[in-house]
């Protein structure tokens, strides 16, 4: 039996919770105080430059110092900093929770009232930090932990910046996650409470719509969307949409303040919200008086440092999705979706990377696979998939992922629309395909299947209940048989 590791003659490492390029997070037991804790261990790869390691260590210490200055229930408590055998560790409050990004990915968009309650807690943590002169700089769903009882923790203050401190970077770049950066930061302004509030607005939009409003297939296109494309809000309640648009006002001087956001969020939670004149989301204002194309190009070429390169959340190290989530059109296993919408003739193979429908009146009129089952034949326009075959026998397709987007809503909930389901499927199936493709050396085709409105509304059909799932299906790009499972 492997001997249990004990850090500082006090913290017994029990189980690994998450691992990334720069370290590991452990579930541990504080043997002195007899309590469970999380241990974040900095463990950069071999060969990393001494200067870069110093920066990573300083970020960990900054996280500890920052959390130590903030007394708020939505801020993770740091108990201890340990340096032992050439490694640095943080002993932190252990929170048994999933991050908001994972909740949305697994279970679909959040209810507006529920999300307003989460936002109030995050806003409280941010106000506490701002009053202490600290800007978080990386507010996003993956840094917001939500416990089953609804309690929230804002994590990863590792790149937080005191307003009177120099930036913690080695090359003068902007630190943060591109899809959540405010236009003022992209124009070269310093991080500020207003830029944190912009990131909170993006987070709200992501959570209630199910997809990130500005994230695109490349950093450059993401930054272009931030500067030029207002968020599409289809599922947010009118009152929450007003908050989101207020927080996403381009001019920071006119952006909704924390006090204004708080009063509106409280009203949403209490059911007393009233819609006022909309706060405009400006797309032409240039707060820095500079050429945005020049600044965006400069940032896209290397000034943006992804915060996740150092650490993700304290419970798990999560890789950034940014550019990788989109792939490239020339890659064999790209997740770039087709823009072809021309109808397919009956009997034609369904196309890779083009959303199709299943169920009553759909491209695939009958679908009887579940879990990660396999089917003998390929997806054909107008042909059913009546049943499964063993995945260890030759087969044509495999269902590699499935999600119920509105899992927490009653089955009688209205059909959210083909476009909304397609957007959800593209995001969800694209992310799941990345993991699936990494297990195969073959060039793979894949697509997302979304239910038709007739299929969705037939949920109470006693003979054949309709399905309300989004399905992700994979096959070999050359249509040769698969010989084994691609999942797990």
Automatic annotation (TrEMBL):
It holds the Pfam family Pkinase. SMART domains: S_TKc. ATP binds at residue 40. Residues 11-269 form the Protein kinase domain. The keyword Amino-acid biosynthesis does not apply. Residues 328-341 have a biased composition (Polar residues). The chain crosses the membrane at residues 293-317. It is an enzyme of class 2 (transferase). InterPro entries: Kinase-like_dom_sf, Prot_kinase_dom, Protein_kinase_ATP_BS, Ser/Thr_kinase_AS. GO terms for molecular function: ATP binding; protein serine/threonine kinase activity. The keyword ATP-binding applies. Keywords: ATP-binding, Kinase, Membrane, Nucleotide-binding, Serine/threonine-protein kinase, Transferase, Transmembrane, Transmembrane helix. Residues 323-343 are annotated as: Disordered. Its EC number is 2.7.11.1. It comes from the Bacteria. PANTHER family: MITOGEN-ACTIVATED PROTEIN KINASE KINASE KINASE 20-RELATED (PTHR43289), SERINE_THREONINE-PROTEIN KINASE NEKL-3 (PTHR43289:SF6). This is non-specific serine/threonine protein kinase. It comes from Lentzea xinjiangensis.
